[in-house]
Please model this.
Amino acid sequence: MTSDRAYHHGDLRRAVLAAALDVIRTEGPAALSLRDLARRAGVSHAAPAHHFKDRTGLLTAIAAEGYDLFADALAAAPDLRERGVAYVRFATTHPAHFQVMFQPDLHRPDDPALLAAKARATAELRAGVATRPPTDNPRLTGIAAWSLAHGFATLLLSGNLDDAVGDHDPEEVFREVGRLLFTPGGAPGR
Model:
């Protein structure tokens, strides 16, 4: 006989993911425990394993979801600079996803859903590079853009840019950084 308690929120998978994202956001991925997430969701300790098998499966699902959200965010930006802004916005809007996505030791690298989501995000990053004037090495252009956006987002999330950004909109600060580095002569405000 099935208890009503096991189905009270209608979508256990989503409830466990939401609880996991909250834990990661506040305590980091190391604090995740399926047993604790089951308690938070109000289900038996074995219930999350039906959806994720284990902790690594849960983190893989979070990474795959993150890459899908990330690809959507990038696709909505018209050019490389705005894709960089979208990158920073994604990191600040989805910090738990961001943490897990870029720690490959946390998830299963051969998971089909993860591979598909990463491929979509990579294609969107490359499409942003394609909006730039042609260079001798578009791959290096992509690496430079990725390094700038990822570095800025990581420093921002870790609080290392608090003084530098101050009360300014981090997205506008990132745009200005891009202008300084990629505008001929490095003149701000162009």
Summary: The longest helix spans residues 55-75. The two ends are 68 Å apart (CA to CA).
